[in-house]
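Researcher: Sit down with what I've pasted below and flag anything odd:
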Amino acid sequence: MTESKKEQQYQKDQALTSSQQERYARHLTMEEIGAGGQQKLFGAKVCIIGAGGLGSPAALYLAAAGVGTIGIVDADSVELSNLQRQILHTAADLGKQKVRSARETLKSLNPDAVVKTYPVYAEEKNIQEIIQDYDFMIDAADNFSTKFLINDACVRAGKPFVHAGVIRFQGQLMTYVPGKGPCYRCIFKEPPPQGAVPSAKQAGILGAVCGVIGSLQAMEAVKYVLGAGDLLTGKLLTYDALRVQFRVIQLPGRAADCGVCGKLGE
């Protein structure tokens, strides 16, 4: 590093408090982040729809990374069966609203994080208002109808988001960025018929798989905010925990007949 670059880096470092420099020391040594990237994270606003198996690790790692504003959308309360995988919550939170439990956990991890809570189900009538102030969305929903709702709302609003799904020992994720690659509906078209695909309640799910996939969702959000690395745009990542296999599948381009993004050029 040249002397001038060292001086610029020093000046950026001084913009952080001593406490922030200590907390994020492992970020500041990485040239892909540094003080400038950390400031980007402080200013970022990421919304997570679903405070369950996927939303838990995603939220925890975003708060730990210093993302300034985190939105949590979930209308459910904590149940005993959640604790096997939903690590935002503990036995002391049973019966508590998930968004309240999530906020308390995230604030205990990083008091500087602004955690906005929405104790509602994401629906057609409220989703545009919820997502309008956020830079990036995380689809941590556990049902197809909400996943398609998130996709359609984000495409129409020009919001990037990362989709993920998990069941049993498998998981998958893909990222949508406006103008880059297909959206979720381009690939999967429509929600499957009722009962055609078993739910996690019916088929089961290993909590650690949620941890892997939810952490990757957080990673996609962080990379987007930093403008670093490659995102899963135009790609579908699949994970098979039993066989220890990751695959990245190249997806076709945007579908001209897509009911949402196919109309953007009209």
Q: What stands out?
A: The chain is about 40% helix and 15% strand. The beta strands are 45-49, 69-73, 114-118, 136-139, 161-167, 170-176, 235-240, 245-250. The first helix runs from residue 3 to 14. The mean pLDDT is 92.
